[in-house]
Specification:
Radius of gyration: 21 Å
Shape: flat
Helix content: 25-40%
Number of helices: 1
Amino acid sequence: MGQILPETTIDPEKDLNLLDNKELAKRKSIMDELFEKNQKKNDPNFVYDIEVKIPQDEHLQSCGWDTVSS
């Protein structure tokens, strides 16, 4: 198995807002390559931009994170 080079990976803990334009462009290029590599271009089940209408006439259940706590 090949060694992963730090200049070809993205550190998820790194704040990309702190990079200069050259380094940011480099990281974006790496992310674009990874996206293209992982994209399933011919997946018959893929649907782009799905919109789902949530029925308004049904009673919606509330979750604990929906409530405001003081």
